[in-house]
Amino acid sequence: MDLQTLDITNFLPHRKPFLMVDHVLSIGNEHVVTSFHIKPDCIFIENNALNEAGMIENAAQTCSSIVGKSYFDDSDTRGEGNKLIGFISAIKNVTVMACPSVGTTIETRAELKSRFDADDYSISTLECKIFLNDEELLSCMMNLFIQEVK
């Protein structure tokens, strides 16, 4: 899959102003790394920083892209014909060390820990961490429910 032409919105139902991922830096069947540049008009800005809810949403969108990717061919960078909906079913062990400032770019890394697939849905557990440079800002475990809408 060519990451230069990959549009993250093909794997996520989110759109601006609720889209909290700008770029996919690396993606595979069990991992993903994304980036997000924090702008002043982001809906989750509080005291000139991305607040905790925004960081959780960034983590959830990053995590769901691993599962969302599996509904597309490696050659399909446009995601034509597939529509997905997703829900966070649980968030565990959330630790927030710091909130990143407006104007910075965070990197979010997620790793698939377990996955159950049925005919048109998946239930997954993922570990996620958010970094600013090499400083860890947030860590959590997240359960996601992703369903294909036909």
How many E strands? 8
| Approximate strand percentage | over 45%
Task: Point out poorly predicted stretches.
Answer: none
Average predicted confidence as pLDDT: 86
Which structural class do you get from the secondary structure elements?
A: mainly beta
Which H/E pattern describes the elements?
EEEEHEEEE
Please explain how this structure is put together.
This protein has one helix at 52-69; strands at 23-27, 31-37, 45-46, 49-50, 83-96, 105-117, 121-132, 135-149. It has 150 residues and is mainly beta. The two termini are 24 Å apart. β1 (23-27) and β2 (31-37) form a beta hairpin. The radius of gyration is 15 Å and the shape is globular. The protein has a six-stranded antiparallel beta sheet with strand order 1-2-6-7-8-5, covered by helices on one side. It has one domain (8-149): Thiol Ester Dehydrase, Chain A, CATH 3.10.129. The protein contains one helix and eight strands; from the N terminus they run ββββαββββ.
What is the topology?
Layout: E1 23-27, E2 31-37, E3 45-46, E4 49-50, H1 52-69, E5 83-96, E6 105-117, E7 121-132, E8 135-149
Antiparallel strand pairs: 1-2, 2-6, 3-4, 5-8, 6-7, 7-8
Can you give me a brief rundown of this structure?
With 150 residues, this protein is mostly beta strands.
